[in-house]
Amino acid sequence: MTRRGVWDIQDVRDKLLAGDPWNRYNALFTGGINIYGELGQNNTDGSGGGHKLAQIDSQENFAHVGGCDNTSFGVTEDGKLYSWGQANFGRLANGGPNNVNRSSPTQVPGTTWASTCKSDTYSMMATKTDGSAWFWGGSGPTNYARSIAGWPYNNSCSSPVAIPGTWTTNPSRSDQQKMIFTSRAGYAIDATGNLYAWGANQFGCLGLNAPDTVVAKTQVGSDSTWKWITGYQHNPACNAAAVKTDGTLWCWGGGGPNGCLGLGPDKTERSSPTQIGALTDWTGVSSGEMYWLAGGFCATRENGTLWVWGATDTGTFGTNQADVQISSPYSIPGGPWKFGQICERTMIRLKHDDTLWISGDVHAAGMVPETGHQYMSSPVQVPGATVGFSSDKIGIWGNGTYLNIGVITPNLTPAQL
Length: 417
Known about the structure:
The protein is mainly beta and 417 residues long. It has one helix and 29 strands. A hairpin with a 2-residue loop joins strand 3 and strand 4. It is globular. It starts with 8 loop residues before the first helix and ends with a strand.
């Protein structure tokens, strides 16, 4: 009989003979801003400084991480949804008051949650394992995205509201999304591959070949072959891109003077989906607003190459140029890459050796301890990113000023003797 307390060699041998001596779980690490408790580490830091990745004090088995603005979310393998950070507009989804922020994960009612979406606004969507989708949060005259749930755009809700239809689960990584919110619109792909859009149709960004107006949830075309969707809205650049099940890459929206649609010298507006090139091996696409007139995209191919286009003045793309405009997809050196994700002026990417890299604003990686920002035009490795995390369990979220990164990685703790 082994005794409780400090293990000696005999204790270890006995435990090994008895079976697996470790509890295995997927630990959640967060980094970046922590003004409202966005890190979920039971503290806040009003300075606005960036924090390096550190583990949340929980042995929950996390499967998904994401967020919207200054609010963070984590979903566990057994279907629990946790929220923490800023509470305004009902974003914590706990039915509680909008002025009580949370600095540690607080469970949202329900035990069949599957994922949350990428959101650039005060609203959030999430899916459950039964194929249902849910909405909460949102307020203000620019947040038309909430109309997917039939919710008035000048109101907010602090408890999840069901969205009609049957939907599929999002990975954490923002380049493989079935549902997203931009600041003025929303997009979602249902379980049969149909693409829907709603919100403000500026510059044709909803892909409906319709005038600029506020639109309720409407199917984009008649195809049922959509796989991943992304988009951003930053006047006068309002653009979207998507990957189909056949691996082709498509875009639509304003484009702007910087060629953000990726169609080369043709920078005219597209109000219907238009194919970028002729390749058929695209595996994901991500986007963010990052320039006073525009934003940009990154996309990954099956061969491990990572491609970018659009405009940045903060080195977001990692091309060793701070101010650059790229009107056709450009391959980023240094791979092979598993994926790339853009959020605002920051781009993260994961190599096949499981190292995580960042360019643009590196505040989210805790590389700027003071209030303020530092911009890197060449990728630098994220400190504290543990080898072994899965590429579909990494998220980046935030607002135009401050961001957060979340990574989920296998962890081991000794089992109780």
